[in-house]
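User: Round two. Same drill as before: sequence, then structure, for each protein.

Assistant: Same drill it is. First protein:
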Amino acid sequence: MKKYLILLLLASPAYLASAQDYKTPYLTKSLVADNVKTVFVNTSGGSISVKGGEEPRIEVYITGNNNRDLSKDEIKKRLEEDYSLDISVHDGELHATAKQKHNINNWRKSLSIGFRVYVNKATSTNLNTSGGSISIANLTGNQNFETSGGSLSINGVAGLIKGETSGGSISVANSSKDIDLQTSGGSITASNCQGHLKLETSGGSLKLQDLKGYVKAETSGGSVSGNNIDGELIAGTSGGSVNLMAVAGSVNATTSAGSIHVQMTRVDKYVKIDGDSGHIDLQLPGKQGYNLDVRGDRVSMASTGTFEGQKDKEHVVGKVNGGGSSVEVRGDGSVNVSY
């Protein structure tokens, strides 16, 4: 077992940086000889970053409250008095923990302790911070991470990805396989991803770009916009509009308080649209066959191919081009279907 007690190392000048900020690490420890496959990081007041594909090492960044500059002697003193700071490596597992020993009555003496970890690409993570952002990049494996007060950033990650924040935005790009991301207070941006995606926010917008696979994206307090999505898309909001362009596959789009615009370049099994308020615009490929069930306060239907069924002011039910994919639209406002 290789165990590194950082409080013992702090006295060594080889581990001390000349400036205590987030540009220069307070402590750096090589992980080249440890063959780390799993990273566990837990800190109560700083950010966490894990990146694959670089020289294996861990860096510790420490600042005073509100990013106040502190001397290395002052940081060392506060660590010894108020914090438990430990790094250990055993059987390919890296554990890095920073936590308060007791309640600090004077908040001015609190520290922000962050970690940046560089490992091999084939590494899994389990990360937790109550007061900072989390960033992971260029990794494969299982990734689990959570913060109560910061943003999440995921880039170039393949595997099982599960992340949650209670107070920040989420950005995921160039990632794949199984992605589950949630925030209670920010927007979500997803781009150039594929696989099974579940994206959920209670207080922000959703922006989707260049996605492929199964995508479920829901918000309780913002708009949903998407472009160039191939697969099955379920997109819903309770407080905004839905705007989806260049969608190929199947789509289920809903809103309780806004308009819906959907442009399909290919329809597979179904299109289902439900809008409680606002108008609905749906554009379909003209040469396909559909089973239509379109209802609204006022329905406008463009002509294409052959139609068999019933049309009137408030609903259109029937088959286009002999029937085929299911198209179901429900709206309390005007509904416009074009080809």
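Second protein:
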Amino acid sequence: MSLSASPVPQTGVPGIRHSIFDSLCLGRSSQSIASGLLRFWDSLNFKKNSEYMGVTLLFLDEKVSSVIHGFIPAGQANHYMPSLKADSIVKVDRFEVARFSSMYKITDHAFLIHFISPTIIDEVIMGAPEINLLS
């Protein structure tokens, strides 16, 4: 599979540049996504006495209505929680893209968006891409 890191400009939306999920590249980068934040929840490791692992997120892509898994590690969760709002359109910048390796896969997408210390997530109020959050 060939992947491109070049951002896809949202037509008619000045200032919002982002990649669609299919163009994400593995590794840490300066790529961005604009997507629907469908849901998020605390992740616990039940094999380790319900140890808090972080926050799991589900993002919805605008182009092909695909869903990708996101994860915020426990040490960074408090920083990002005030910025998370289910059923909102968000822009996420500067994250790591990894192969999804868990046997408990919750989406069909092969990749995972992993929040790292420089990651920024903001709700897009003006100029948001059209994303059907009900699909």
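Confidence is low (pLDDT under 50) at residues 1-15.

User: Perfect.
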